[in-house]
Structures are given as structure tokens and as C-alpha cells.
Amino acid sequence: MSTQTVAQPSVESRSPAPPAPKSRRTERSAYLFLAPWLVGALVLTIGPMLASLFLSFTDYDLFTSPHWVGLANYRQMFTADQSFRSSAAVTGKFVLLSVPLKLALALAVALLLNRPRRGQGIYRSLFYAPSLLGASVAVALVWRVLFSDKGTVDRLLSAVGIHTGGWISNPDYALLTLVALAVWQFGAPMVIFLAGLKQIPRDLYDAAAVDGAGRIRTFWSVTVPMLTPVLFFNLVLESIHAFQSFTSAFIVSGGRGGPSDSTLFYTLYLYQRGFADFRMGYAAAMAWVLLVVIAVLTALIFRSSRSWVHYAGDDQ
Amino acid sequence: MTAVPVGESTVAKIRRPASRVLWHLMVVLILIVLLYPVVWLVGTSFKPAEEVLTNIGVLPTHPTGANYGSVLQGVAGYSLWTYVGNSLIVSVGAVLGNILTCSLAAYAFARLRFRGRSVLFGFMIATIMLPLHVVLIPQYIIFQKLGLVNTFLPIILPKFLATDAFFVFLMVQFIRGLPRELDEAATIDGCGPVRIFRYVVMPLLRPALITTAIFTFIWTWNDFFTQLIYLNDPSKYTLPLALRIFVDQTSQSAFGPMFAMSVLSLVPIGVFFLAFQRYLVEGVATSGLKG
Fold it and tell me: How do residues A121-136 score in pLDDT, each as one tens digit?
């Protein structure tokens, strides 16, 4: 099978130049320590990556051998497949909504908590709790019922005169419930923001006070610049994470991505194509498109970071 | 923590308690909204079926244990303990794999010199950001051809090959922080890398190993995607997969047992949270682990 043959060139097989005996011994034991990881990297990462690139140019149903179709999968994706287009749009909308909202809330609550008060540690843990629970099927099921017709959200809104009905059955609102579930887990980036806030040296604030800066000025001129490395880190991590969301959409929409494709996440459509229709070649092509999009976006964030991320000691 | 700095004006001192109460009030208010879904879930698991949608409060008007009774009698033809057992197998297996092989790889990257180290290290870091989907299909094909679909191996085996690069990185960072003098002293005493790893690094690595163990357990316990793909026989279902059965049952009578089982599936996470909350939060704060 293609994956095994691809996984041949190994670092170990390079003929070693004769180093000093002692370092050769370390070298040998280094590869011994690294052996499980190396096998994993070759057989479960590099091999499969190349294999899925190959499969993306084929038609493959898992049972008959792959049939070369050239760029047909990609052509279908970008010109003919309406569901592909909506799944890309849904995931794009989800990332653009959930990541900024989540980070803004995380920062706001971190600023609120960042005070020498009793109970701060416990509060911090409690805010973090949803991040541990949010990925579970159990919480997605709770979301399904909370946002259903006559669910808590509907009842509370009806009480103040807003009649929305069930959010999960409404194509205009269904995605918002998934955004809400993602934003609900703001605790993890909040904890990272808090750690970043504690790193800001006190004397910067003292200096700002001496210079007569008010609270708002201090926030924008001291806190925000000093926090940009942490913001950058959170932004990269959360974006990559958001692109791959799956469970919430699967559970809330019952695996279908409805109503009318409004919660058809990219990963959900990929799953349907690969594991329900057994169009493995098409799913592999979708995976590579996802990889390229994530790589390009990450590269863009990294590039842009030069102009907005401030590293202490860079300048005066 | 609460020490009032000396030299503050009396006005500030008088104003303080009020603003402090206000601060606590705000924080608690946000927490109530934030934790409502969880508390509601627990309360609702004790509500009779007809109350699930009519009572948005957290406390049941007519508390009942019937939902739990029904779940304990089995779900979809199998005992609850089958699903709990399966979840335990994959989670504990994943923990053992990560602890063993991530630490081996991390030690090599952090302490040993070998050809290609920087290239391999760069590759390892890059795989942290690699979306699972791009390796998913060939991995599935491999396991399918080996006849391992519908076993726990496709979920556990990759962990024994250190594929969770994040934890390798976490441990590399940790080992780099350990004083090199310890290694050097052990080398003078005649220890090779294997014994240094076993008797010097491993014991000191404990905090990082605990962090890895806790997060691996919780993530694998919660994981849905991988288990959905590899396990399709109900006797092999884990808790997340068994819970998914309820998605297709739209009748309200299924809500009670669904939430009872949801609560049970979250119990280990709750226990870990209570026992290790400091570890968890510090782990996130210092290494940027995702929750």
C-alpha cells in the first residue's frame, strides 16, 4: 500500500560519519529514545500526509483500488459542489465570530480577575471549568435542549417579549448556538491572559502613574502592548482549534449539519464525504485544502505579528 | 493577598470594602450565568420527563431518581458499565502511552546530541499545529487493512508512538529547565543516558508527567471524533458514543435518562477538576495547554 512505501527515507538509514566513540554512543541511544516518536512520525504522520495528498487525486472507496482522476476532486469542490461551498462558509463564519468573541471575553474577565482579592484562585478555576467540559458530548446535548423550542433561552427571551422559538431548528440562529458554546469555553485563554498580566512589571505602571497617565491611557499604553505576545499566542491557538471544531455541530445537528446546512462545519462535511459516502479521495482533497488554508492563515498571523506584537526588550 | 498597601489615604480605605463587595458580586454574577448549563444539567437529571422543558430552574419540583435507575438498567442493549469500561480502556491506555513515549522523545530532544536534531525538532513542533484530518484517512485505511477497526488499538496505539506532539514539547520545555549539573554528576558517576533518564530525569519530571496524564485522560475521555470513526459496534461504544444514541431519539421521555447519563459521563472530569484544579489551571497558565 502506498503509505508503507512512502514511509521509507529515514534519518537513521543515513550512513554515520565516524565521530568520537563516546558521542557515537550518545547518538545511538538518542535514536533509541526517539524510536517510538520516529516510527510514529513516519508511519502515522509523514506517510499518511503524502498518502492523502496522493489519494486527493484519486477516486477511492476503500474497497476497490484508487483510481487516478487528476484534479477532478478539486475541480468539483471549487466549481460544482454547493455543500462544499456552504461548509467552507459556515466554518469561516464560525471562526470569524467565535475566536474574536472568545478572546475579548477572556481578556475582559482576566482584567476583572487580575486584582489582589481573596478567592481569586477559586474564581479562576471556576471560570476555567467550562473549558474542560465544553468539548464533551454531554454538554453539546445540554446545548441542544437549552436552545430548543421552549428551552431555557427561548423562555427567557419570550419573557422579555422576544420570540425566537428554537434556535437549533432555525437556520439563521443555529450557528450562533455553536458560537455560544465555543465562547462559553473562554476560560482557557483567560487563564493564559491572567498569567500574561501577572508578568507585566509593576514599575511600568508606576512610571505611567508618575507621568500622569490615567487608567485608560495606562491600559492602552502599558497593558495592551505588554500583552500582545499572549494575545498572539491565543489567537493562533484558538484559530487553529476553531477550524477543526466538530463535536458540537455533529451533536447539535444530529450529524447532518442542518437546518439547511447552517451548521455544516467543514470537518463535518469531510466526515460525511469520507465515512458515510466512502468518497475517501474527495475527503482527502478536502483535508489538504484545510491544511493549506490553516497554514496560510497561520503564516499571515505570524507575518502580521511583526507589526503589532511587542516583545519586551525590543525597543525602549 | 489582601494586604492593604501602607500609606493609602483614609478615603481610599473607607471606599475599599464597598468596591470589594461590588467586585465579588460582579464575579459571582458572571459565574452564575456561566455555570448555569452545568448546574441545570445536574438538576435536570433528577427531574421527571415532563419537567425537563417546563421547568427552567435548576431544582426539580418533583425530584426523582428514575432517570438514573433507567440508565443503570442499560442503554441501547448494553450495560452502562460496558461503556464506562470501554471509555476507561481508551483513556488509561492513552495516558500510559503518552507518559511513556512522550517523555522518551522529550529527553532525547532536550538533552542528547544527534544528527538531524534541529530538523526533527522543528518537524515535531510543526505537527502540533497539523490538523488531524490530513492524516486521518490514510490512518483509517492502515487500521482498516490491519483489521483493527472496531478495536481500541487505533485510538491507543498512536499514543504509544508519541504522536501527541504537544506533550513532547511540554516535557522538552520542562527538562530544559532542569539543572544540567545533575546529568553531568551522573555521567561522572558512570551513568549512560538510559540510567540518567531513569534515575535523574524521570523522578524530576513528575509534575510534567502529572499534567500530561490529567490532560490526556480528560481529552481522551471527552473525545468524540476518533472514537466515532473507529468504533462502530455498540459493544465497543465508549460513553460519548453511547450518549450520541440519544441524539436520534427525539421524544421528550428520553431526556431524563439522557441527562442522567450525561452527568455520569462528566463525573470523572468533575473529580479530576476538584482534585487537581491547581495543577490544571497552572498547567494552562505556564504552557498554554488548551482546555
Answer: 899 999 999 999 999 9
